[in-house]
Amino acid sequence: MTATDPRYEIKLTCDEAYLPDVRVWLDLHPEAFFEAYPPRQVNSLYFDTLSVESLDDNLIGTGERRKLRFRWYGTDYTSVRGRLELKRKSNYLGWKEYHPLPDTYDLTTTTWEEIVSRMRARAEGPFALWLAQMSRPVLLNGYMREYYESADRQLRVTLDYRQAAYEQLTHLVPNLRLRSPTPSYLVVEVKASPRHHRRVSDLLSSFPIPVVRNSKYVIGVLESLCFL
């Protein structure tokens, strides 16, 4: 198991139509942002308890929040390989613990029962306990992500768009066809070490969109429930 250091993770949201404007803002910013990695599709399968405690914590704004997910990249759903991640959040500080899984999973032919069983057999340490507690597949989402970093690589900005969400609560096999009617929005996330709080503040103040707490998990689940 590996863990990341706590860092600021502050999200701003706007209509996806503003994506070109946000790119221009980054290009012209004094922090001299550059594209650090090629864009790619990010996919997450979220797990929750039978009483959906993670969703409740996000809805009521609990100071300490956590989400368990399986993350992978790319557009292939027939040979998926990724890692379990426990995402933790304390106000604006976030960090995660992660555990790569060696198996590949075919989400087009396998039941959730079999997939979760195989994951639990491979999970080690705390992840075995967390997956036992939060074993219910709730939501699968995906989006395109662009990666930017400041000239000294201390500030990171990601742009997430082309959001797609698929409710899994009522499905025995992965639902990859019935897409939930999620809004077309752009998520801009600023990430940096707490020691760069002043630079983060200056960066946010230069962006003409108010800071809004955003959770792709919460939005996806709520939109899915409205769709049922």
What does this structure look like?
With 228 residues, the chain is an alpha+beta fold. The protein has one domain: VTC, catalytic tunnel domain (mRNA Triphosphatase Cet1, Chain A), CATH 3.20.100. It is built from six helices and nine strands, in the order ββαβαβββααβββαα. Strands 2-6-5-4-3-7-8-9 form an eight-stranded antiparallel barrel, surrounded by five helices. It is globular, with a radius of gyration of 18 Å.
Summarize the topology:
Elements: E1 2-3, E2 7-15, H1 19-28, E3 34-48, H2 53-60, E4 64-73, E5 83-90, E6 93-100, H3 112-122, H4 126-133, E7 136-149, E8 155-167, E9 185-192, H5 197-205, H6 216-227
Antiparallel strand pairs: 1-6, 2-6, 2-9, 3-4, 3-7, 4-5, 5-6, 7-8, 8-9
Mean pLDDT: 87
Helix-strand topology string: EEHEHEEEHHEEEHH
Broad structural category: alpha+beta
Number of strands: 9
| CATH-defined fold name | mRNA Triphosphatase Cet1, Chain A
CATH class: Alpha Beta
Q: How many whole angstroms does the radius of gyration measure? A: 18 Å
Could you list the spans in which at least 5 consecutive residues all have pLDDT below 50? 224-228
Strand order of the largest sheet: 2-6-5-4-3-7-8-9
Name the CATH superfamily assignment.
Answer: VTC, catalytic tunnel domain
CATH architecture: Alpha-Beta Barrel
Distance between the termini: 37 Å
Percent of residues in β-strands:
35-45%
Q: What is the number of helices?
A: 6
**Which term fits the overall shape?**
globular
